[in-house]
Amino acid sequence: MIRLKQFLALAGLTAVEVLRQPVSLLLFVTALACMGMSPLFLLHNFGESGKIVRDGALALHMFLGFMLAGYSSCSVMAREIRSGTASAVLSKPVGRELFFLAKYAGVVVVVLFFSLCATGGTLLAEKACEKFYFSSRLVGYYVDNTTGVLLLLCPGAACLIGAFVNVVRKRPFVTAALSSAGVLMLLLVVGACFINEMGRPQSFYCLYDLRLIKASLLICAGLTVVAAIALLLAVRLNTVQAMTALTIIFLLGWVSHYFFGRNADASVAASLLYGLLPDWQHFWMGDRLSDEGVIPTSYAVRAVCYAATYSLAILTAGAALFSNSEMK
Amino acid sequence: MSEAKSEAIVSVKGLRKTFRDFWGRAKVEAVRGIDLEIRKGEIFGLLGPNGSGKSTTIKILLGLLHATGGDVSVLGKSPSSVKSKERIGYLPEETYVYSYLTPRETLMFYGRLFDMDNARIKERTQQLLEMVGLTHVSDRQVGEFSKGMARRTGLAQALINDPDLVILDEPTSGLDPIGCRQVKDLMLELARNGKTILLSSHLLADVEDVCDRVAILFNGEIKAEGKVEDLLKETDSLSLTMPSVEEGKLEEIRQFAAKLSGGAVQVDHPSMDLESFFVDVVNRAGDEKGEMSGAASGTDIAEFLKNVS
Amino acid sequence: MRKIGAIFWLTLKSAVRSRLFAGSALLLFACMAGLPFLVKGDGTAVGEARVLIYYNIGIAGMLVGVLALLQACGAVSQEISERQIQLVRAKPVSTMHIWLGKWLGVLCVNAVLIAVAGTTTRAAIWARGLAGDDVKAEVLTARRRIAPAEERVEYEVDHLYLEMKEAGRILPESDESAIRQQLKLAIVSARTTIGPGQQRRWRMEIPTGTAPKGSGGTELRSLFNAAYRDEKPMLCSWRILSDEGDELYSVAPAAYMDGLNRLPLPEELVTEHSSLVVEFTNEETRDGRTVIFNERRGLEILVNEGGFGANMFRALLVVFIITGLVAALGLTMGAVLSFPVAVFASVGLVIASLIAHFFMATEVIPHSHDGCDHASHEEFQLEIGEKMAAGFERIIGPVFSQKPAELLSEGLLIAWEDVAGTALLLFVVYPLLLFMGGALGLGRRQLALPESF
Predict the structure, then answer these.
(1) What is the predicted ipTM?
(2) How far does the CA of residue B245 sit from the closest CA of chain C (Å)?
(3) Which of residues 15-54 of A touch C (CB under 8 A)?
(4) pLDDT band at residue A118 using 50, 70 and 90 as cut-offs
(5) Chain-centre distance for alpha carbon B266
(6) Chain B CB within 8 Å of residue C3 CB
């Protein structure tokens, strides 16, 4: 029981620490603002707007999520080790493995929150973008500007609420703004069901492309792997070194199937490298969604299992490494 | 120190520093209009509890922070002037040296920043390494050092350019007793050689030992300033010094001291030690002020422990 | 200078003593040595050599760029957060010294890493045994590419537009810019299409400094397709004329196959003339077909000018220049922002530039013709988007127009004058602007603020 309490306390503290960093707000705001802008500025692509907006939103989710998960993990671990805060905590009856895993859990909570907001943003952006409709009700290209504008205003409104809370209640601006962004996004996702394809009011009807939820879930799974790798690197490297190494692993992970995966059967070295490097292609479903494509549930389950297994292996290695590290 | 040393090395008038938050609102008023003058050749002590504005003042003098208001002149120049720093040596409150360099490389690096020639840097590096007692570990990286050893490296780098003004922020922090003694001796020696020293420290005994003048800061304001002996003098009472007498005659001594002792009677103002004086000033200032930006004095530790047990 | 030198030395030492430098060098070495054995070309030695060089130089540029960006972002921002900058700024050092010293340090690290990549790539080519005559002639060489002079079509577009307008073929409410764009496309495609019995002339400016190596290899290369494909060759003839119209060289009508065709030329043609006119005739025959020249590389004269080693050096130099610019960007961002925000801002800027470049480089027909009326605010949105992209493109265009990996893998010359021009803009002008911004920003920044401010 005490272990669970310690774990929750440490994980909660880590999540709060990450959510107070200005860069977290910057990443959230950028993600939502860019998602809001894309349907409004990408027009007249002969029905391709949907794909461009969808791919763009998923790419933002992946890339900004990578930055959030990567930097947060690197900074919470590397900084605590270097500043001696980790020593102070470990001088209490707290196990090193528990400390390490709680840090991971804290970062994952923030990543999940980011993914939720990004998924909402992706659904809304896709709903808002210009599409060709051919039904008994509608024929032609239509843009839902209302949803697009509301999505674009969402990060700004969240910042305003954050500022208000900061001025009046003296609560941290970043945390207040991020919480507001989450709430606003939830309200907007529900509220947009009352807006039709042309941006006019309608009775409740869901116009979202629900395939995007699975695609976003897979990206979120990928981001948890990023967090695990970053935490492992930060045990021995400082923030800049860990971020650099993580970026290289991230880049190599995108080409690992092309270079190693295809040759895995023919070469032991290629197979080993393919096993060692994460294959991000498993989590990228942007292309799969084109032409009314679907993501089979069995595939999604397998990809999530891959993420879980990979993260588990990395976390085991990280915990072992952390247990053998000398603290300042 | 003699009165002839009148050239003002540091001059501060009405200095104010306000830290603002993201919205530009004043969050902390760290320095609230202080006036200060440090003259050539003196050792000036800057005292105050945590958060009283000592380090902020020092960082403004070095141009690391920008003043919100007031005039600051260091060696006759603005703190933002790069030129003025040629004659300054600075040791910050924590030793912010590069962990991946050795002490020798650290000194060589800082020497080059002063545009000193290589031969001079090498000579000076060797002297300073010997002075701080790091010659035998001069090729180990600072990151592997204890806090005290790193502090010694920091102290050496502050003197690499043979500065006219040495600013030392908690110089004895982390040093062993011998190191502390050496630092105090060093400060006295530097002052004898005409160098000016600005010392910020919590160790009042150190300050009392070496400083010519001190200023006590509280909540960003100077609450007391002057020569150490003047400040410690209790002008509202007298002390009587005489050879010891029998117990029974104490009362009579009190009344007729001079007459009964038969020896020379010395009448003088009594002196407190600096620690008592400091606590007194801070307590009085604390009673006057409602809101503080720095640390407030806590409850008595012994009392706390007694209550807990 | 000594102050800059001291900061440079410090940056170098920091890189060398951290595991970052050794790790990066090792990774680059592994990539450069390993990739050639994993990547497969089209099955020919020439194809494999091309793919090897393209991937190796491209990946080296990308990895060194990423390393440079992160290292530069952290160079100043980390010193501020870890407070070492306080000791440095307490010394007589200006922010300009700090910026320049750090930049030179990162450049030096880049130079070493690029040298590792280059040397390993060269060794990998040798180790893969890609040194046959065909590879030497096509890839391991440095040929100057002389393309037809850019032909301006605006005059013809104007002429045609007015003609159509006068003839009443343009409705008053039509979008003029869209019609002009269509006309331009039509004119350009008409120029690349030559029917049987038709002739087409291109003017080729020979750049000053063109100096054939003297071992042959100067050739006219054409790439065209027949309007419909079959196995039969086409009968075509070529003539090279002077500016005045005098015939300098000609080839009697001969059979040409659909695709790439090479015609050896005497070297004097490019050494003795400052411009040439190339004339192509699609001879009228019973099986004659219309030919369509490739828009990008339909016609070119290739002049063998030098060896692969020197060309590779210049390609690596261009990579070095670009990574130097990336480092300058990271350094300036790190001087005014914290590390994560600096990385975010720099990467964001690079990505925004890439997107703008992509949109501007893709010649999309500007407005829709889907038949529905778009509201004026949509037009406004379009205009803003286009203007933003165009603005970005104007600034970053010269960066993305550099293609060292592509040119080197194609065996095309990267001329010294091009390298010098690139260096002037990307290594002097842009970094100078970033330098001023970074030094000014760092000077104005309060370096000893408590952590929460």
Answers:
(1) 0.74
(2) 59
(3) 21-23, 26-27, 30, 40-46
(4) very high
(5) 33
(6) yes
Say if residues C435 and C103 touch (Cβ distance below 8 Å): yes
Strand partners, C281: C199, C237
Residue to mutate among B112, B121, B162, with most C CBs inside 10 A, is: B112
Residue whose C-alpha is closest to residue B111's, from C392, A62, C5, C175: C5
CB C184 within 8 A of CB C161: no
- The model's pLDDT over C140-164, given as tens digits with 9 standing for 90+, comes to 888 888 888 777 777 888 888 888 8
DSSP track, A230-254: HHHHHHHS-HHHHHHHHHHHHHHHH
B37 touching C (Cβ < 8 Å):
no
Whole-structure pTM value = 0.79
C83 → chain B, closest CA residue: B96
Tokens of C105: 């340090």
What does the angle CA A26 – CA A283 – CA A120 come to, to the nearest 5 degrees?
45
- Judge whether C19 is closer than 8 Å to chain B, CB to CB: no
Tell me if A167 and B23 make a contact (CB, 8 A cut-off): yes
The more confidently predicted of residues A131 and B75 is: B75
Is C14 in CB contact (< 8 Å) with chain B? yes
Sign of the Cα pseudo-torsion (B258, B261, B266, B267, in order): negative
CB contact under 8 A, A167 and B22: no
The DSSP secondary structure of C63-116, one letter per residue, reads: HHHHHHHHHHHHHHHHHHHTTHHHHHHTSS--HHHHHHHHHHHHHHHHHHHHHH
Nearest to C10 by CA among B100, B230, B234: B100
**B101/C10 touch (CB, cutoff 8 Å), yes or no:** yes
Residue from C426, C63, B166 nearest A245 by CA:
C63
Quote the DSSP letter at residue A1. -
B22 touches chain A (CB under 8 A): yes
